[in-house]
Amino acid sequence: MARIVMKFGGTSVANLERIHNVARHVKREVDAGHEVAVVVSAMSGKTNELVGWVQEMPKVAGAKSPFYDAREYDAVVASGEQVTSGLLAIALQSLGVNARSWQGWQIAIKTDNAHGAARIQEIDGSDIVRRMGEGQVAVVAGFQGIGPDKRLATLGRGGSDTSAVAIAAAVKADRCDIYTDVDGVYTTDPRIVPKARRLKKIAFEEMLEMASLGAKVLQVRSVELAMVHKVRTFVRSSFEDPDAPGMGDFLNPPGTLICDEEEIVEQEVVTGIAYAKDEAQISLRRLSDRPGVSAAIFGPLAESHINVDMIVQNISEDGSKTDMTFTVPSGDTEKALDVLSRSKDAIGYDVVQSETGLVKVSVIGIGMRSHAGVAATAFKALAEKGINIKAITTSEIKISILIDGPYAELAVRTLHSCYGLDKT
Ligand code: ADP
Ligand code: ASP
Ligand code: MG
Predict the structure, then answer these.
(1) How far is the CA of 51 from the centre of ligand 2 (A)?
(2) Segment holding 3, helix H or strand E
(3) What is the mean pLDDT of residues 271-276?
(4) What residues does 399 pair with on adjacent strands?
(5) Could you tell me which residue ranges the ACT domain spans (predicted)?
(6) What single DSSP character describes residue 198?
(7) How far is residue 306's CA from residue 298's CA, in Å, rounded to a whole number?
(8) pLDDT higher than threshold 90 for residue 139
(9) Cα Rg of the chain (Å, integer)
């Protein structure tokens, strides 16, 4: 007997038939004698609808500002998961499985005060563990917890993955299974590149990079938690027949295992390609080249909660003036330009230029640490397709390249084949 946390994402619980199918997956594990806690997302599309309503409300009410109270955003958007947790508990009970739903505050999943993007700080798993011991399945609403202000807090988009891994750590689960609409982690988004290959295993650090560079199959924070707490995490499909052979294989379930790099025998140089759309580039021209200028630019941007990503500064020609270019999410462009214009005197620049609708494609692989020439291969392949590179950043295990939006899919496919990742 083992203890398993099973998480089901939005498409897996998109309608009542799918929730019934999810209940069959859960029943399979219960019948095998395991203790089970389930984490669910909102039905697919529901969170987007709720977020849309929150954004519309101030306009409809004639408010001057589009801003709204983040605590009320959380009160609204957390409701999607409440619905699915109740429905799945009913579906399980209908199959004769003892189950009950849990909201974040009932457990309690305690978070910090960052409404809309809260971080889990503490989970008291004792109630769930006791009831699992009595044979009851805990069906937990993902994406939500309770803040120090005693109000609902949500964990940022895709946050149910994080709920699942955090609960798995809290109840010391033997395994955390993330069920989704693809049957594992692929070398790149299989919806963009049909030739993408499913990985049997991927190292934590690579998954962390893939997730932070745009592969939304797992929320970044869930990977961090799995790595820190050594949670054995699998990504697998909810769409397979719950009773198909091998589905209940405890040691070797179908899907992709996220694990320590030592566990991976055949390490490729490049493991995957990720992409992030809707990036914007901002350039400050003829900036004075003196100590403190970067702080004068990025300090105010950080205070305004603008996430700056790639930063490139030119070498000054004459020691007095230089150029600085950086990227922000497209949606933050106006806000960033506003901040920069207000700090113009403190920074000291001539003009600011911006361009939206760009895409960042990234090549990821632990093998890059010990192999030269990986970047050159990417540059050559992109050049052959006539794709212009606007900015480049690298780290030990990744290369990120900024390009024009319309080239995104071509670039992802090109990089995928140039490193021999295509399925044969
Ligand atoms: P869920 O609703 O189950 O949380 P998500 O939509 O958040 O599912 O994540 C699953 C999606 O992630 C897939 O449908 C796929 O399009 C996308 N994806 C992006 N990159 C990858 C990748 N490298 N491997 C697998 N899926 C990926
Ligand atoms: N329902 C939330 C979202 O759409 C959380 C999740 O699905 O993980 O972001
Ligand atoms: Mg998700």
Answers:
(1) 11
(2) strand 3-8
(3) 97
(4) 363, 394
(5) 282-357, 363-424
(6) B
(7) 9
(8) yes
(9) 23
Pocket test for ligand 1, best of 198, 207, 216 (most atoms within 8 A of CB): 216
Ligand 2 contact, 42 CB (< 6 A): yes
265 pLDDT above the threshold of 90: no
Burial zone of 335 (CB within 10 Å; 0-12 exposed, 13-18 middle, 19+ buried): middle
Q: Is the CB of 80 under 6 A from ligand 2?
A: yes
Identical fold at 3-262 and 272-418? Answer: no
pLDDT at 348: 92
- Tell me the pLDDT tens digit for each residue of 361-414: 999 999 999 898 999 999 999 999 999 999 999 999 999 999 999 999 999 999
Measured from the Cα of 44, ligand 1's closest atom is 2
Q: How far is CA 144 from CA 84, 110, 215, 284, in A?
A: 13, 9, 22, 40
Determine the residue of 47, 48, 76 to mutate for testing ligand 2's pocket, defined as the one with the most ligand atoms within 8 A of the Cβ atom.
47
Q: Where are the domains positioned within the chain? A: 3-262, 272-418
Quote the percentage of the chain above a pLDDT of 90.
Answer: 93
C-beta of residue 236 within 8 angstroms of C-beta of residue 253: yes
Ligand 3 centroid–CA 297 distance in Å is: 34
**Domain 272-418: assigned CATH number:** 3.30.2130.10
Ligand 2 center from residue 14 Cα (angstroms): 12
Ligand 2 atom closest to the CA of 156, numbered from 1: 9
Q: Per residue in 227-249, is it b (16+ CB within 10 Å) or e — as a string?
A: beeebebbbbbbebebeeeebee
Shortest-distance ligand to the CA of residue 83: 2
Query: Tokens 């589009």 map to which residue?
Result: 66
